[in-house]
Amino acid sequence: MQNLILIEYAEVHFGPHLNIITGETGSGKSAILSAIRLLAGGRADVQEIREGADFAVVEATLEGPIHVRREIYRSGKNRCFIDEAQVSLAILRETMQIEQVDQSSAALLASVEQQRHMLDAYANILDQVAAHEKALIEERALENRLQALKLDLHQKEKELQLAQQDLNLLEELQWQEGEELRLNEEHRLLTHGQELLEKLSTVTFTLTEGGELTSFKQNLALLEHASHLDETWAPFAQTMKNALLELKELGLTLRSSVDRIEIDPHRLAIVEKRIGILESLKRRFGPDIASYKKSLEEKLRTITESSLEAMQQDLLLKKEQNLQAAHQIKEARRAAAIPFEKHILTELKSLNLPHAQFRITEQNRFLFAANLGQMPIALEECASGGELSRVLLAIKVLLARQEKTLVLDEIDSNVGGQTAALLGAKLHALSQKGQIICVTHFVQVAKCATDHYRVRKIIHEGGVRTLIEKLDAKEKEKEYLRMLGSGE
């Protein structure tokens, strides 16, 4: 470790069993625990960087070997590495497998949730419980989606009812695509019928009976007579003759068309009423009634009752599965509770609590009494920190796993010397299953160490530094005397 709290640079080679750390109050033992916490993936605090330095580094080499490094900077940046590859905190925690317990950890026993977690760990159903909790979240999410779909379908049903009403209205009014264009044309003709009749009648008369036609015929006769005198004028006479024939034909055609012109006020009123109806539909449905009608027809095809039914079936199945899983977990906890109680009582007796009582309720709540004749009460109501520490240690002993490193910070506080000796022996036995790193002020605990480390402060170049030393047999005896002499 480098630049951590009071440590400029230090290396510690912990053994595989019980590692004891001692030292005077304020000597820097917390720096070692901070280093371990950082390596375990704990929260980084820039206040832990040594004064005058811009960064701190903590490194460890595990069996494997695996090299782990954590860097923290005053800028707030922090990085984690495993074998020089940068990783997330989650991966670091999973890799390190370190559990830290201090005096405040005993307060965790007051949490019913933590108590249930400990019982689940003993029953070996943690994965099963985690899967069940995930399934319950999925069940709630499915319920929310189903409720949202029901609301959506309810809204859609309202929309569909309105759409059907609009379609019914269009059918009732016999709306037809292109009808408005035809009606507008008919309305134009009916509105200007009299004017058209007058103008076209004059033209028709002119082309069929009028004096202009007689004059045209007379002029044609003159041109034909001229062509008899001079053939040069014959083509002109023929052109004029053809024009006369076309005018006569045009006159007959116009007469036929004029005869079909209606001047019908009743029909005009009908057309205007129909146009008014179509205008009201446009105001209601928009200018493009055809597109709106298609959208209505499409809405009528969007109802998804089958989706609702399928989701309801999925929810029923999920609820049934979760109920079965909950029942299995409940039975597993019930089956584990009695042997868990017996094992804890055995451990508590070995920790100088011969009359302790420990019970687990139907609600998986831990009850405890330290003395004979006392009624067991909830752990959160127990006032003695020393007793709670021993209960916590008993549980840790029971749940100890070979692959985890257990870090204990003065868990032996608030206990007597005889109990401290028992704690030391218990920790030594527990360390045969896995590595333990323990900070203590008790000689009785320190004497049980496999490896003993002393932390002390030294004055170095005008500043205070922390020195960490592994003690040999002679140095251990000196440290025992210091611990006894200090009264700690």
Fraction of residues in H or I helices: 55-70%
Compute the average pLDDT.
Answer: 84
User: What gross morphology would you assign?
Assistant: elongated
Secondary-structure element string: EEEHEEEEHEHHHHHHHHHEEEHEHEHEEH
Number of helices: 15
Strand order, biggest sheet? Answer: 8-12-13-3-14-15
Report the uncertain regions.
none
Query: What portion of residues belong to β-strands?
Result: 15-25%
Query: What is the structural class?
Result: alpha/beta
- What is the first-to-last residue Cα distance? 27 Å
Major beta sheet summary? 6 strands, mixed
Number of strands: 15
Q: C-alpha Rg, in Å?
A: 51 Å
Task: Write a concise synopsis of the structure shown.
The chain is 57% helix and 16% strand.
Overview of the structural elements:
The chain is an alpha/beta fold. Helices cover 57% and strands 16% of the residues. The protein contains 15 helices and 15 strands. Helix 4 runs antiparallel to helix 11, helix 7 packs antiparallel against helix 8 and helix 11 (305-350) crosses helix 12 (385-399). It starts with a strand and ends with a helix.
